[in-house]
Design a protein that fits this description.
The protein is of the alpha+beta class. The chain has eight helices and six strands; from the N terminus they run H-H-H-H-H-H-E-H-E-E-E-H-E-E.
Length: 171
Amino acid sequence: MDNHIRTLRAARQWTQADLAAELDVSRQTVNALETGKYDPSLPLAFRIARLFGRPIEDIFIDPDRPGESVPVAASVPEPGFDYQTRTAIALNELGILREMGEQGWELTGVGLGTLSFRRAVGQQDAAPRWLYQRLSGLLSSEQRQELTQQGWTLVDTWLGGVFHYFRRPLP
């Protein structure tokens, strides 16, 4: 089952281990949840919803109604941030990522044809700028480790891990 757990976790700047500790599950369970390889039990789904302060329907995407999912970044904004969701297709997605990153918008999630961003209110000129990249295919742990060593942070994956979106602050 697709969900917004990775986006919610990243918004709090938690690692998978941090979230696992909060939920009293293993890091592997969090990874399996985020990649859609494991559907949580109902009690675990309720714990996740309570932890993030959101209804279950905002976190988990109904497989019978995928188009009805609301992007997490747009559903309940955090105080102190401006939000923007941009419609993106394969032809313009990388251009949107470049444009928004140069303007200091932080990518917070990827949805069906959308990219969600946030930026601290009043930080247009002082906001950190971002460089984004999208990688396709399965990534090995060695590839992920190399990206991390280069300063890249995984923001989100899409289509069960077919696409991986990374960000790095621009100097």
